[in-house]
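ok new one. same drill as before - structure tokens go in, u give me an amino acid for every spot. 143 of them this time. try not to just spam alanines like last time pls lmao
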């Protein structure tokens, strides 16, 4: 059911959040900040909506069991792109500004994160994704 809902939503404007979701599935994420246990935070189904170019046919989505896994997925997507562009280089390094440029270079990217207390998906924009990827990479580097 969820996949069918997302596929239907992708027919609408990808800019931030498809119109089909605006009233039925979302709360105002900027005003509503419920307390959550670490278990609930770690297990928040996350859908990344993206469009790689102005061509509407490039719209797609990726879904993950947690925000952390979604951030890993975005980093992996960028790393695959780097390998495609530089097939002869065995070890490629990049910094956060390179990752940000990749994210900003996409026609659109946003996230839908499931909120257990609301039983709804909350929308987040590209800037939120960039903040979460930085936090995620810092957390990985500290371990």
């Amino acid at each position: 059911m969820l996949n069918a809902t997302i596929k239907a939503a992708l027919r609408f404007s990808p800019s931030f959040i498809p119109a089909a979701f605006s009233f039925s599935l979302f709360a105002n994420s900027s005003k509503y900040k419920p307390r959550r246990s670490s278990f609930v935070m770690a297990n928040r189904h996350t859908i990344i909506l993206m469009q790689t170019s102005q061509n509407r046919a490039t719209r797609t989505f990726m879904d993950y069991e947690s925000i952390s896994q979604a951030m890993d997925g975005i980093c992996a997507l960028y790393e695959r792109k780097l390998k495609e562009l530089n097939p002869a280089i065995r070890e490629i390094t990049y910094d956060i500004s390179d990752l940000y440029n990749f994210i900003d270079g996409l026609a659109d990217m946003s996230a839908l994160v499931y909120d257990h207390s609301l039983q709804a998906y909350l929308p987040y924009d590209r800037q939120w994704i960039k903040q979460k990827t930085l936090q995620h990479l810092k957390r990985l580097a500290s371990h």
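The domain at 44-135 is CATH 3.30.2260.10 (ERH-like fold). and btw The CA atoms of residues 47 and 63 lie 4 Å apart.
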